[in-house]
Amino acid sequence: MLFNIEEELKKLPASPGVYIMHDDKDNIIYVGKAISLKNRVRQYFQSGKNHSMKIKKMVTHIAYFEYIVTDSEMEALILECNLIKEHEPKYNTMLKDGKSYPYIKVTVNEDFPRVMFARQMKRDKSKYFGPFTNVTAVKDTLELIKKIYNIRTCNKSLPKDIGEGRECLNYHIKQCMAPCMGYISKEEYAVIVKDVIAFLNGNYGGVIAMLDNKMREAASKLEFEEAAKYRDYKESVMHIVEKQKINNNTDTDDKDVIACAIDENDAVIQVFFIRGGRIIGREHFHMSEVRDVKEEEILENFIKQYYSGTPYLPKTIITKKEIKDKELIEKWLTAKKGHKVSILIPKKGEKEKLIELAEENAKIVLRQDREKILREERKTKGALKELEELTGIGNINRIESYDISNISGYLSVASMVVFEGGKPKKNDYRKFRIKSVVGPDDYGSMKEVLERRFKHGLEDINIEEFSSFSRFPDVILMDGGKGQVNVALEVLNELNLNIPVCGMVKDDNHRTRGILYNNEEIEVKKSSEAFKLVTRIQDETHRFAIEYHRSLRSREQVHSVLDDISGIGKVRRKALMKHFKTIDAIKEASIDELMNVESMDKKSAKQVFDFFNKNV
Length: 616
Prior knowledge:
Blueprint: H1 5-10, E1 17-22, E2 28-34, H2 37-44, H3 53-60, E3 64-69, H4 73-87, E4 103-106, E5 115-118, E6 127-129, H5 135-149, H6 169-172, H7 186-200, H8 205-220, H9 224-240, E7 255-263, E8 266-275, E9 278-288, H10 295-309, E10 316-319, H11 326-337, E11 342-344, H12 350-379, H13 381-391, E12 398-407, E13 410-420, E14 423-424, E15 430-433, H14 442-462, E16 475-478, H15 482-494, E17 501-506, E18 512-517, E19 520-523, H16 529-563, H17 570-580, H18 583-588, H19 591-595, H20 602-614
Parallel strand pairs: 7-10, 10-11, 12-16, 16-17
Antiparallel strand pairs: 1-2, 1-3, 4-5, 4-6, 7-8, 8-9, 12-13, 13-14, 13-15, 17-18, 18-19
Helix pairs in contact: 5-9, 8-9, 12-13, 13-16, 14-15
């Protein structure tokens, strides 16, 4: 209700990052990455775009979105993958096959290690580099390593298989030193593997220089294909060794990265959860009354309050500022976890960059939430204040609204919807099935509902039992006009209750144009927050009543037809519906066709056939 998509789209930054779509039940339904959040997210809500049916359907379920800003598209890609794996959103089908971004694996646990392509990082004592987002670049780099360093690619078990067979083709084309034949010692091979690992770690200045020289040399000889090949290898190397701080493949300890953004009297704490070297999610928390409080004190208070209640403690907590009682808090957390817990304050490197990333996102949340809080106050408290000024009713907080739903008097039901502080309070919603009124009598039905509601409330008050019924509203809002208002006032007078009742004044098109109170019509501007609140309450009351009626009607339809057939129990009813799909198909079936249904014998088939033929 409070998330205005059009307004939020205007505030998106033109920065790389990950966007997260939620439905109205707060489920994450889609996670995506963007080089520009502003451009990418807006595209989903532009009608002129040629979206697939899946995306169109997904957009209809978006209630709100959030996003995480990153420093590069590369980071956004990795974070997107991590979040999809963690949350498995309904509409992210591209990774359902279990594939992920690839790694480069060096089998350092072997006497003669290999360098190979890997889809997953396993605990097999090998050394992994990645994950990487460009599969072609990974394969090109592996090919480059093979050509430059002549590392073996075979699956032979060395040194056990040394000397068996003969040299492979790679040896003859000078892309392998044939350790399988004993042509290079374990020590010499280890020096080459060390150079490969240094190269994959980013120490690639020498390789780049070498490729530049080979490219120029080939070009000078007019061997342009060869020159282009070295150029492409160089580009692949530059791509594959790009620094990524979203994933730290050498440090897989669990960490929480905590950053703070402060503005006047409010602060937002942003926590990034890193598990197994991957950012799997983030959460933000608000802290109030922080005026003139130092950042390190805010962080210390947060750490003490948050980790006193959280069920899981990471091995490392990373913060920006040195906190006063760091050692004492570390001891406390270590005792709580049963293993060492450290609080780190990084000054440089990847951890410092993670702090900066968390801090940037905290600032965005603080800015957004301030605006969101102001908008929410206008829509809730502001709307209630406008309503008080319009009607003269003081201290409006709890509003109850009622609606009747039926089809020509069939299965009459009523809904009671409650708003508190301008927001729906769904735990206090109630449904009523009309018992005493027969036929389409909305006034009689409403009288019954209000009597039951307030008599129940008075009983609970008398026996000092707390329930949603024992809390009376500050205002009752009736969907109808004078007729329904008078019914409500009649019930309240009979019960000696003094509760203001307002009705809705409709125009010729049955659209609300004003409020009826004390037999006077009060004009309400459609642009006002009070009018919008009344409309939200009205819509919610209708929705709740109609959904209840629909569910009863569906159950009643099946019951009225099948449950009344003698000798047809639950198992046979289920078998009939499973076989014929619809009631109409059962009605049209012959005895022989009915006997083909599982669990149906001739007697029960005849009972069903006779029932429908007698009632046609």
